[in-house]
Amino acid sequence: MTRQLLEAAKIISIQLLDHVIVGNPTDDPNGKGWYSLRDAGVL
Predict the structure, then answer these.
(1) Bridge partners of residue 35, in order along the sequence
(2) Beta strands 20-22 and 34-36: pairing type?
(3) Rounded Cα gap, residues 41 and 26, in angstroms
(4) Sequence spans of domains, the chain
(5) CB contact burial 9-34 (16+ within 10 A = b; e otherwise)
(6) Separation between Cα atoms, residue 43 and residue 38, nearest integer Å
(7) C-alpha 20: how far from chain center
(8) Torsion 13-42-36-26 (CA) sign
(9) What angle do CA 4, 6, 36 make, to 5 degrees?
(10) CA-to-CA distance for 5 and 16, rounded, in angstroms?
(11) pTM
């Protein structure tokens, strides 16, 4: 899905700054409750 968002952003000439997945902090091994694909180096 992130690749699709990135391609769609290119088509309409906007910059995709990040794709963030939000969840429950208690289910996250890092305890944050969110995951940034920019921070992970995917974008």
Answers:
(1) 21
(2) antiparallel
(3) 24
(4) 17-43
(5) eeeeeeeeeebeeeeeeeeeeeeeee
(6) 5
(7) 3
(8) positive
(9) 100
(10) 8
(11) 0.68
